[in-house]
Amino acid sequence: MDSWQGDPELPDPDRNSRIRTETPDASSKGAASSLADELLETMKEKRSLGRHMLHLLLKRDTQSLLMGYGVGEPYYALGFLRQRCQMLKHLDLSYQSHLTPKIFVDTLKCLPRLQILNLQHTPSGDQSLHNSHIITKHSSVRSHSEETVQVMEVIGEYCPHIRDLNMTSTAISDRGVWKLCESSTGEPRSQDLVRFKVTETRVTAEGIAFLLLQCPALVDVDFPDMIQVRRTPTRLGNFRL
């Protein structure tokens, strides 16, 4: 696998799969939140957290929720996020295979400060494609999953501070890349994006070339054929079909 990497100082969203909240506030409220964070992590190690415990521990100033690899009760957790956690900066839902694209869309619309998002191996698009592992690298931009495009469009529109996005093993296509970094009226989006992972997807070298042109802060792209990207003349009109 060929990967183009810079040296961004970002936390790795894959470093663990535990549920955790982080509130680095030095005030008494922040101290109380930190205590709740420690309690949440300790209890997660002992048992799966249900609705009642998530209700008690997910607060307005929660900044991180890591529910990767299918742990916890994501439906309840995301419901509480939408209601009260607009300060959230880091969300990991990797391998949560029972969630739907609509849930992602509804949740992401409520997270304006989100910086790190991991949707690896989730049904954020065409689940039949995902399950059969049929990944078409050079498919037409017309043959995309509208659900995935909608998820990417919501990230671009409602999460303007996104810095680290992992869409590995999803049905994202070139059209989804366009929606992530440019509005339908041509306004730039995702200008803070630094890291982007799209291995085992429908994104082509042309899509990555377009992304690099649109996102000047991008320094780390996990894509299987960066050599081809460097050889690809980007025809911007293709992404708007």
TrEMBL record:
InterPro entries: Leu-rich_rpt, LRR_dom_sf. It comes from the Eukaryota. Residues 1-33 are annotated as: Disordered. Residues 12-23 have a biased composition (Basic and acidic residues). This is Uncharacterized protein.
